[in-house]
Amino acid sequence: MATADECRTALESLTARLTQLDAKSRQAHLADRTLSCHVSDLGITFLTRLGPHGADPIMQADGQPPAQIRFTAKSDEVLAIAENPANFARAWLSGRLRVDGSILDLLSLRKLL
Predict the structure, then answer these.
(1) Whose CB has fewer CB within 10 Å in the chain, the N or C terminal residue?
(2) Does residue 108 or residue 30 have the better pLDDT?
(3) pTM score, whole prediction
């Protein structure tokens, strides 16, 4: 089982990929949305806001309202997806990653990962 700090670092590496995209790609694919990742085996949720600017810093979502796009996974799965974003679809289809959000938002994010 990974630690909360390892999960935060993994999520920061994923959101850094978005920030590194050119402005035109971010504008085309990133609508202003809140995104959360609930790490089920640690009982914590991380939150950020995505938009044409990239991503805001990752923060712990203590008492925040539900995000527009929500992911739930165990800590080791969070690390695996951050290490190789191509694992995202495989984890989702196998049930190791739960995704709640609009299908359009998910398709836009998938293009960027």
Answers:
(1) N
(2) 30
(3) 0.86
